[in-house]
Specification:
Blueprint lengths: L7 E12 L3 H4 L2 E2 L5 E2 L10 E15 L2 E22 L2 E24 L2 E14 L3 E5 L2 E5 L11 E6 L3 H9 L2
Antiparallel strand pairs: 1-4, 2-3, 4-5, 5-6, 6-7, 7-10, 8-9
């Protein structure tokens, strides 16, 4: 907020990414029945490939508040996800295709020289876009296109409110 000029910026972005598996993801493999093989690593995971598009606006809404709103979509091929776990040991597999669509919003406000707030909210619709199967305890599970991606939060928010005055007083007393 060093500049009190009011301005609005329109943003657009495109990115492409390739993400290979990490050591945790290749540490254990799956047996034919879908159980976790803790004695054999897997090297069959393909790298995940993603493409993201984002559009939004960043603007001062008054002299002390900055608003950021962005819409995004991400398509992923071969997403790496947990297939099964056994006693904390997780085996991974590729999900053929997934998609994430959402919106992110934040408002950063400086109320005084020593007090500001930051609040944000995000909505995420994360789903599979192609059917796939996984085997758990010798039972094949069919995961239909449109199913929510496990462990993806639909709503997230954050509130920060640091007090600069307290830090300044402590530093000035020394």
């Amino acid at each position: 907020f060093s500049s009190r000029r009011r301005h609005t910026r329109y943003i657009g972005d495109w990115s492409s990414d390739v993400c290979s598996s990490d050591l945790a993801e290749i540490s254990y493999s799956l047996n034919a029945d879908g159980s976790v093989n803790v004695n054999k690593s897997t090297f069959s995971l393909k790298p995940a490939e993603s493409t993201t598009y984002e559009a939004g606006i960043k603007s001062f809404v008054n002299d002390n508040s900055y608003l950021n709103i962005a819409f995004f979509t991400t398509q992923v091929t071969n997403e790496i996800a947990a297939a099964n776990n056994s006693s904390g040991k997780v085996a991974y597999q590729n999900i053929p295709e997934t998609e994430r669509n959402g919106i992110e919003m934040s408002l950063d406000t400086r109320w005084s020289e020593s007090f500001k707030t930051y609040i944000s909210y995000a909505y995420l619709d994360a789903t599979t876009t192609k059917d796939y199967t996984k085997k758990v305890s010798n039972v094949t599970q069919n995961i239909a296109s449109g199913s929510r991606i496990p462990r993806s939060e639909e709503h997230t928010s954050e509130l920060q409110s640091p007090m600069y005055l307290v830090c300044r007083l402590l530093l000035e007393k020394k």
